[in-house]
Structure formats: C-alpha cells, structure tokens
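W.,

You were right to be curious about this one. When I first looked at the sequence I had no strong expectations either way, so I just let the prediction run and decided to look at it fresh. Below is the sequence, 69 residues in total, followed by the output.
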Amino acid sequence: MENKLGKWHKEHGVSQAFIARKVGITESTYSKIVKGETLPYVQNAIKIARALNTTVEDLWGELTEENKN
C-alpha cells in the first residue's frame, strides 16, 4: 500500500533510522513500511504518525497525483 512516508522524509530531512528508533522498530522494518512493501501494525502506524507529528490518515489516506511524489 502506498504511503507518504518517503515524501515526508525528503521534505523534512529526518532519517528513517531516527524514526525507527523513536517508534521502537528495526530500520529494516521501517524501510519496508516506507517502500510500501509491508503495512505496520495499527499501534506502530499510530506511533509513526505521532513521531512525524501528523496523523495516520495523512500518511496512509487517499493519495492524489499531487502528493504521490
């Protein structure tokens, strides 16, 4: 499933490793989530959104052409 995590990291310059540590998951797992290869557990999706100071809906909600990149 697509998400806006990659875009968020590009815009904010925060490393995936930093967010993975903050959420309490491995960098490998977080990388797979960012790439859309796997979905996080609901609890981790909430933690990721909080760590990024946004909402789950914003990260995994409907993607439009404007916010896909």
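Here's what jumped out at me. The radius of gyration is 11 Å. And, maybe more interesting for your project: The chain has a mean pLDDT of 89.

Coffee later to discuss?

I.
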